[in-house]
Write a structure and sequence with these properties.
The chain has helices spanning about 1-15, 20-35, 40-50, 60-75, 80-90, 90-100. It is mainly α and about 100 residues long. The protein has one domain: Serine Threonine Protein Phosphatase 5, Tetratricopeptide repeat. The N and C termini lie far apart (about 40 Å).
């Protein structure tokens, strides 16, 4: 696991502007999250969510919102956690599923 983490870390650091691809930042955030490094995970998930759109037709936006919420809960900031959970639930695809509209 350390080898995989190092690969993601190096990949993310190779982009000095922090604009790397979504997968790199998301996976690095997951690695930090698994190691209980929530501040670092938050940073990576925030970069990742900035690289995608809520209506891109994939579950990526919802996944990022969910993990941001979990990280903020772990940091003791439930207000921000709720904000991210709600943001994920406002995703167009999810809203249409819960409202019964196509």
């Amino acid at each position: 696991m350390a080898e995989i983490f190092e690969e993601y870390r190096v990949s993310a650091e190779a982009d000095p502007h922090g604009n790397g691809d979504y997968e790199t930042h998301y996976n690095l955030g997951l690695a930090y999250h698994e190691m209980d490094l929530f501040e670092e995970a938050l940073e990576e998930f925030q970069i990742a969510i900035g690289l995608i759109s809520p209506d891109d037709g994939t579950p990526r936006y919802l996944q990022c919102c969910n993990l941001l919420g979990h990280c903020f809960m772990q940091k003791g900031v439930p207000q921000l956690a709720v904000k991210w959970f709600i943001q994920g639930l406002r995703r167009p695809e999810y809203v249409s599923m819960t409202s019964g509209k196509p």
